[in-house]
Specification:
5-stranded antiparallel sheet; about 475 residues; about 25% helix; 20 strands; alpha+beta; disordered N terminus; DUF1254 domain-containing protein; single chain
């Protein structure tokens, strides 16, 4: 989930808008190494698809952990920020944010030494998860209700180059493929009165360097980094320069060797023979066109690369390095669909922007309903939800009742039909006082709906495997 939807859309035209004058390398050899414009365009297309999640992640990291004046700043590296609230329309750094569970957010700098994460004992009835996601947007580990149970424990996170023994008391070691990494804690909130209990759980989340955990002298601090400022306009012009910067903290895996070598041909990453900015303007224009083609491929994958089930797009887009195995298009689609999503075993995300017949969901033109037959709610071990987003920005929407989602803990307060089924009213204006308990407010425009099934059941009926499971989400229906 790059910062703000508009940023993503305009990034594809990056090089076309570059106004930097054509620069000439100092020697003829460097000039001879320039790819021709057709090759530059092809590399840009592939490179954009490869680099999109990496640049998106950098933008979020910059707002959350670097720029204290971003308006979205959480905490410096290696310090946890507990949010005693759920996300609202005011949270704009991450697209398609979860508003189910209060977040605790942490950005790790693993360059100096490993970091130890400690979690408290959490009651079995309360779902929680700790997702480790590195700068490549690989989900490289989990702690929590499903993955490790509800017991207290200490876990160690190490950087890509770390080698060493596991200290006594550490339950498991997780290795990030990059030197900076995100950690997202999700703690279930049952209702507004439950927040103090969530805060007690959050207070038990501890973060400390390995040296502190071992009660040893601190290691020498890592060298300070001059993080380049990033915003919507800057990414339009400098996408590959941000990618170039981020890659220095991400040693190439075996499946990345080929794309990294290609990127070096246009001055990006280790092994480059000149800077990207030294390319002739004609090459930069072709690169801009290549990026546009790359974004269209990402959009196409989101539209057709997943199974269509009653109008819902269902697939398994998130995972670790092995899960992607060099499928950069799938990784880019995952990030653009909603960066920092969970592995399917942790959560599945049916997404809908249209009816089953392909008609775009639009709150300014229609009212909609979604009906779950009696006893046929999404099958989960934890809980499920349906969240409303603006179809263009993929952000939560401001609405008169401050309701961004409907989830299973809300069921006791909702009205069922005579046959035991549950109908949700998806529309811009209130459906009336008698139906308002079941109202999910929609924008006065395009709609993006995301269902979340946390810890999906594995036995039938199940949504697993994603898109081919025995449980199918019901179709959204336009009201007559």
């Amino acid at each position: 989930m790059l910062t703000k939807r508009d940023l993503l859309r305009s990034a594809a035209l990056a090089a076309i808008t570059v106004t930097t004058a054509k620069a000439v390398p100092a020697n003829a050899q460097a000039k001879a190494e320039w790819p021709d414009i057709r090759e530059a365009k092809a590399i840009a297309e592939e490179g954009f698809i490869y680099g999109l999640p990496i640049v998106m992640n950098y933008a979020v990291m910059y707002e959350y952990a670097v720029d204290r004046n971003s308006g979205q700043f959480k905490a410096p590296f290696n310090q946890i920020k507990n949010e005693a609230r759920v996300y609202t329309y005011k949270d704009t750094a991450v697209i398609t944010p979860n508003s189910d569970t209060p977040y605790s957010l942490l950005w790790l700098d693993l360059r100096a030494e490993p970091i130890v994460l400690s979690v408290p004992a959490v009651e079995k009835t309360r779902y929680y998860s700790v997702m480790l996601c590195d700068g490549n947007t690989f989900n490289y580990g989990y702690i929590g209700s499903r993955a490790t149970g509800g017991e207290a424990g200490d876990y160690m996170v190490v950087g890509p180059d770390w080698k060493g023994a596991t200290p006594p008391g550490i339950k498991k070691v997780f290795q990030s493929s990059t030197q900076f990494s995100a950690v997202a804690y999700r703690t279930q909130l049952f209702n507004s009165a439950d927040m103090p209990n969530v805060e007690k759980v959050q207070a038990g989340y501890k973060v400390q360097p390995l040296s502190a955990y071992l009660k040893q002298p601190a290691t020498v601090a890592a060298t300070a980094v001059d993080f380049p400022r990033i915003d919507k306009e800057m990414v339009k012009k400098n996408f590959f320069e941000y990618l170039d910067f981020a890659l220095q903290f991400a040693p190439a895996g075996p499946e990345e060797k080929e794309i990294r070598a290609k990127l070096a041909r246009i001055g990006v990453g280790a092994g480059k023979t000149f800077d990207f900015k030294d390319l002739p303007l004609t090459h930069k224009i072709e690169i801009g066109l290549g990026m546009k083609d790359g974004e269209e491929k990402v959009e196409g994958y989101l539209a057709s690369g997943q199974k269509d089930v009653n109008g819902w797009k269902i697939g398994s887009l998130f995972g670790d390095r092995q899960f992607y195995s060099g499928d950069w298009l799938k990784r880019a689609a995952a990030a653009k669909g909603g960066i920092y999503g969970n592995d399917a075993v942790e959560a599945v995300y049916p997404m809908a922007k249209a009816l089953a017949n392909g008609e775009v969901l639009d709150g300014s033109k229609s009212k909609y309903t979604l009906t779950f037959p009696a006893g046929q709610y999404p099958p989960v071990e934890a809980f499920w939800s349906l969240t409303m987003y603006d179809g263009k920005t993929q952000l939560l929407i401001e609405n008169p009742i401050n309701r961004y989602l409907i989830n299973s803990p809300m069921l006791p307060g909702m009205k069922k039909n005579a046959d035991g089924s549950l109908t949700l009213y998806i529309q811009n204006k209130s459906p009336g006082a008698d139906k308002e308990s079941n109202w999910l407010p929609a924008p006065n425009g395009e709609i993006y709906l995301v269902m979340r099934l946390y810890w999906p059941k594995t036995e039938a009926p199940s949504i697993l495997p994603p898109g081919d499971g025995t449980w199918k989400p019901p179709a959204i229906v336009a009201a007559k």
